[in-house]
Amino acid sequence: MEPLEVLAKRKKGVARLNKNSKIFKTIIKAIQEKKGENIVSLDLRKIHEAVADFFIICEANNQPQIRAITDFVEEEVKKKCSESPYHYEGKENMYWVILDYVNIVVHIMMPEQRKFYKLEEMWSDAELTEHNL
After folding, report:
1. With bands split at pLDDT 50, 70 and 90, how would you rate the model's confidence at 133?
2. Domain coordinates of the chain in residue numbers?
3. Which of the pair, 81 or 1, is modelled with greater confidence?
4. What is the DSSP string of 67-102?
């Protein structure tokens, strides 16, 4: 992972996003189509230390489903928004995959990892929105 200073600097000059942004809607819809569970977004725009505008977090019950969600999010964002992840982590083990689209970071996690790392609690100052069907 990059130092926080580097991550903070890379955001300068990049347009701020909102929940109506095409990439935001595309990611949520892609996760829903592949049956991601407990989908939430954290609005980090009012948190000065945050390295992104939004985190989108979801769960999958097994590694093949994590792979399916990951691949579909990447395909849909590439097709509809012409963007590829700036960086990604976790594709080797498929327990927690991170897709970093600079101002949106997608976390696709197994339930055990989500319970252990408690991202929603860590970023409890952020506005949380549920996106379950």
Report:
1. confident
2. 17-125
3. 81
4. HHHHHHHHHHHHHHH----SEEE-TTT-SEEEEE-S
